[in-house]
Amino acid sequence: MKFDRRLLFNFDWSFLLIVLVICAIGLLNMYSAGFNVLSAKAGSFYIRQSLWFLIGLVFMGLGFSLDYRDVIRYAYVVYGVSIVLLVAVFFAGEVTRGTQRWLALGGFTFQPSELMKLTIVLVMTRYFTVHEREGKYGFKDLAAPFLLVLVPFMLILKQPDLGTALILLILFVSIILFIGVQWKTIFITAAAGTLLMPFSWFFLKDYQKERLLTFIDPQGDPLGSGYHILQSIIAVGSGGFFGKGFLKGTQSQLRFLPEHQTDFIFSVFAEEWGFIGSLVLMILFLALVVWGLRIAKQSRDLVGTLLAYGITMLIFWEVLINIGMVVGFLPVVGIPLPFMSYGGSSMVVLMAGMGLLMSISMRRFILQP
User: Fold this and answer.
1) Strand 99-105 to strand 108-110: parallel, antiparallel, or no bridges (unpaired)?
2) What pTM was estimated for this model as a whole?
3) pLDDT by residue (tens digit) across 157-193?
4) Cβ neighbours of 59 (radius 10 Å)
5) Own/partner pairs, 360-363, CB within 8 angstroms, 24+ separation
6) Going edge to edge, which strands form the sheet with 99-105?
7) Beta carbons within 8 Å of 165's beta carbon, 6+ residues apart
8) Would you say 110 and 345 are in contact if contact means Cβ atoms under 8 Å apart?
C-alpha cells in the first residue's frame, strides 16, 4: 500500500496535543495516587500505567496510519473476535472481588469489555453506512443493530459489569439518535423503558442494589456501603479553590479514599488541584469532545462522520458519568475516567480510538467530496 505524503502535511497536531496533555496530567495524578509517603517512592500503578501509555501510543500510531475505511470493512471480524474474548472470560477469566472480567495474556491482564466499547462504534458505523436510507429509521430497521448490541450487553452484564454494559446501550442510543429515528419509535421505546424500569430491580445483583440505595441515601451506612462515595465527596470538597497541592491530598495519601487509582481518580486530582485544576481538566476534556465533533462534521463521507461521532460520544459519556459518580450526582457504576483511571485495557483501546479520529481528520483533505 503506497503512503500518501499529503497525510503528513495535514496531520492534526492540535488534537494530538490535547490528548497528550490529558495523558500527561493522568500520569502525574497516578504518580500522586500511588505515592508512598514513608518510602517517598511512586507505586507500581504509576509504573505500569506509564508502560500502558507507551503501548497506547503505538496503537494510536497504528490507528492514524491506517485508512479508517479499511478498518470499518473489517468491523464484523473485530466484533466476532470481541465476542469470542467475552465468552472466553467465563472459561479462563480471572476472578477478582466476585467479578470475572479479565483474561491473562503473557503476564498482562486484558479486559475484553473495554475493547467491546470501541467495537460497538465500529460495527454500528459499518451497519448504518451499508444500510443507509433517506428517511428516518423505525423499529424494523433497528432490530438487527440492536441485536448486535444486546449480545455483548448480556455477556458483560453476566460478568457482572453493569457500568460497561450500560455504556454499550448509551452508545447505541447516541448513534441511532444521530442518524435519525422516527418520533413514534422514540416515544414507544421511552414509554416501554419507563414501564419496565421498576422490574429491572429484581434482576440486579445485591451489590448493585446496594449501590443504588447508597446513591439515594449515602448517609444510611457511612462506614459500609456509603463509605466510598462519602470519602470521595470529602476529597473533592476539601480541595477548595486552589487545592492542597501536589502529593498533599490527605484523603488519598492516608488511604481514606478507596479505589483512588481507578474509579475515584478524579477525587485525588480535585483534592490536590482544587476547583481551578478541575476546571482546567474539564476544559481539556471539553476541547477533546468538541474537536472530535468537529472532525465528524468535516468528514467527507458518512463512514468518517459516524465513526468520529461514536468515538467522541464514548469519551463524552465516560467523562460525564465518572465525574458525576465521584461527586455524588450519579450512582457508582464503575466507569473509568478516560486517560486518567488506572487500566491498561482502557488506555490502549482509547488511544487506538484517538488514532482513528486522527485518521479521519487527516484523510478529509485527500478524499473527494
Assistant:
1) antiparallel
2) 0.92
3) 988 888 899 999 999 999 999 999 988 888 888 888 7
4) 17
5) 360/68, 360/295, 360/296, 360/299, 360/304, 360/307, 360/308, 361/10, 361/12, 361/15, 361/295, 361/298, 362/7, 362/10, 362/11, 362/12, 362/64, 363/7, 363/67, 363/68, 363/300, 363/304
6) 94-96, 99-105, 108-110
7) 153, 156, 157
8) yes
Q: What are phi and psi of 41, to 5 degrees?
A: -130, 155
Which residues, 6 or more positions from 160, have their beta carbon under 8 angstroms from its beta carbon? 99, 205, 208
| One-letter identity of residue 12 | D
Predicted pLDDT at 108: 76
C-alpha cell at 53: 501509555
Q: Residue 36's pLDDT band (boundaries 50, 70, 90)?
A: low
Cell numbers at 291, concatenated: 474537536
For residues 356 and 311, what is the distance between their CA atoms, to the nearest angstrom?
Answer: 9
Query: 3-class DSSP state for residue 1?
Result: coil
Q: How confident is the model at residue 363 (pLDDT cuts 50, 70, 90)?
A: confident
Q: What would the pLDDT profile of 93-124 be if each residue is shown by its tens digit?
A: 777 766 778 888 777 788 999 999 999 999 99
Backbone angles phi, psi at 95, to 5 degrees: -95, 125
